[in-house]
Specification:
- The protein contains 17 helices and 11 strands.
- By secondary structure, the chain is an alpha/beta fold.
- The protein has a 5-stranded parallel β-sheet, with helices on one face.
Length: 399
Amino acid sequence: MDVQSIKRTFGIIGNDPQLLHAIEIAAQVANTDLTVLITGESGTGKDVFPKIIHQNSARKHGQYFAVNCGAIPEGTIDSELFGHEKGSFTGAIAERKGYFEIANEGTLFLDEVAELPLSTQARLLRVLENGEYIRVGGSKVMKTNVRVVAATNVDLPMAIQKGKFREDLYYRLNTIPIHIPALRERKGDIYLLFRKFASDFAERSHIPPITLTPEAVKVLEDYRWDGNVRQLKNVTEQISIIEQQRTITDTVLERYLPNKVTTALPVLFQREDSKEGLSERDLLYKVLFEMKHDIAELRNTVNELTSHPGGSYIEATPVSIKPVNSEPVIEPDFTEIIPAEEIVHEHHTLPENLSLEQHEIEMIKRALEKHNGKRKDAAKELGISERTLYRKINEFGIK
């Protein structure tokens, strides 16, 4: 199947050379059993390429399973992938087949593979090398013949340096790399995608499609689109349903595009993977945890000072965190001299969190409400992994 046929079959819009090259590689590697690693930012459409590979391979009549590794709790991921024996853990009332057993002779797509725990990574490496695995709680070595395609939006070489991903697994997965370009890297496709999304939504909703003025097209193409194709589709549908006028000007369009946030905070607060500033929510989240860390250090300092005879004093200095417009956001006035004995004594210690837990719970609740309970989208907005969000939800008892 040629590139144009693949684009029609899977609904891929765009003529960017990088995108076409990625489709060509997927088509060429389909008839082999080589492991493929798909990389690219969130929202670029990485999940389409495993389907291209599967449907153009000799395994197309076999099972195809897509597993979101970041959405499965750490305690059950091994059972989901490799199965378990009856009684192997609490709640294992019967034996269970894992995806590697169910998808035998087919294709298994491991999305967000960087979220796998290190112990599971070791099991995965063994399957990729010789097709062998053992069910959780079992002792029998089992065999599988599965084509594995993995995807991630994480910089795996950086994750290896931080000790979060196995180097040997990276090289085993990265036999055939396919990189999906970010939407801002293929500006010529942005307006094509917008027209497609506007037309599709109009047809489904039985309304006239929206169009853009030339000035609005320029705004559309110059915007960064950190959420890539997924974000563009959401914005297009929002405008289509909310705006009464069918011709959208640049002024109207800009109301639907998140503002580029700049900050007077140190460069340490900037994203490692972006030249843009943090969003207000990201910024608040990071500031709260920095405050928590600073408070813990202050408590330790107070404990050290009060351990010396004669007592000690602490002079608290004003703290000011200001955005670009120079209006203070946080500016507590702690100019008085406070005896350390009044802060920490034998039966009273300085609270470490100062209600930061409540801030955290409230932010998580708001993110979940905004995204209708979708943990993946809420985690992305909060700047944490879905696994971390899942743990926080359980830890705080959030319903």
